[in-house]
Fold each of these.
Amino acid sequence: MPKYYEDKEEDTRACAGIREDFKACLLEHDCVMKEGKLPSECLKEGHCKALQTSFFECKRSMLDTRSRFRGRKGY
């Protein structure tokens, strides 16, 4: 479930909800918060893998030529 804030302007880009959840997962993970590593380093270690995969699938669906006829997947 995406997090939405009242005082923040709405992101209308594709996959915005997953992008926000993925970003929050990385920035709030113990790997970044306690160990002081960069989010990119935590990604290489495999943290937030499910959200990373979902974000990739959402972005890939935008490039899929079949989506012209079927429409983008509902993310």
Amino acid sequence: MAEHNYKFNVTMTCGGCSGAVERVLKKLDGVKSFDVSLDSQTANVVTADSVEYATVLEKIKKTGKKVNSGEADGVPQSV
């Protein structure tokens, strides 16, 4: 089964911020793995082929964090 690799640059100022992003990714169906880094201000997400970039982006935005940029399978996307 194919998968997607999504990368987001997210403004996170504390552990609570990165924790909020981790919580929404943990609950999202189809997410195989993720790595949220407060130090590098990034969220790298591996999903099943059925999960759209826009779906993951919307979940991260719902935490109230600002998404500065995003990539889907290495291709820059709009945020």
Amino acid sequence: KSEQADGASEEPLNVSIQKLKERRDMLDSEIARLMSAGYNVRELEGHITLLHEYNDIKDVGQMLLGRLAVIRGVTSKELYPEFGLDMDD
């Protein structure tokens, strides 16, 4: 009986391992594609760091805009023109 239970618990683990291997292979292929396009790991890491910084700053801006909207009793969307923001910003 315990052999059946062990076999049953190993199956989902094997599926998870296989999915991780497929993900690794996909990422390796993407890295190879980017490197063949002229990118290097250091450059990509720098871009990723800058994107994280940008997103953090944007999040703070959105938070401040939201708080100002609450204080003024309007929606954040209504404040966008006042600050020269596009809805895609």
